[in-house]
Write a structure and sequence with these properties.
The protein has ten helices and no strands. The chain is mostly helical. Keywords: Repeat.
Length: about 160
């Protein structure tokens, strides 16, 4: 069943994925964290971040602990639509329960910051990454350069 749910999520046929979830639930087969995270990612890709958030809340009610991918999926989804308030709310929730952000977490936040043209906040995130010993990757730099829109300006900022 998981492979079918995964396939529907990958193809963007979320209504079919949720129908399968309902079917397995009726069969008293409870979905695991992988299934929930797959559904969350599918929802997020389709721009249905609130549905992804509801899935995470359902996970918790069922005693399934969210993992990094759960949080990163929500942060990415909120950031893609420019909703920094909710992206940072999830980030703070992640920190409050002891999860350390990863480069993917910061990349998702930087994407939202870029979308909202909040350059100073991007610099703050870079500093936070450095303080946590997290090295930016190619995607981090790409997002920052794209946000600034000028490689020379990006390099000047890096020198200061």
């Amino acid at each position: 069943m998981f492979a079918l749910i995964d396939g529907h999520c990958a193809n963007g046929t979320m209504e079919c994925a949720f129908a399968l979830l309902e079917t397995i639930d009726k069969m008293k087969v409870h979905p695991d964290g992988v299934t929930y995270n797959t559904l969350m990612q599918g929802c997020s890709r389709e721009g249905k971040v609130e549905e992804a958030r509801q899935l995470m809340e359902e996970m918790k009610r069922r005693g399934i602990k969210p993992i990094h991918i759960s949080f990163n999926t929500l942060i990415s989804g909120y950031s893609k639509r420019g909703d920094l308030k909710d992206a940072f709310k999830v980030h703070n929730e992640m920190l409050s329960i002891g999860f350390n952000p990863r480069v993917l977490t910061y990349n998702a936040l930087i994407q939202g910051v870029r979308k909202n043209q909040e350059g100073d906040l991007a610099e703050e995130l870079l500093k936070e990454m450095a303080s946590r010993g997290i090295r930016p990757n190619d995607n981090t730099y790409y997002s920052l350069i794209e946000g600034i829109g000028n490689v020379d300006e990006f390099l000047r900022k890096g020198d200061s």
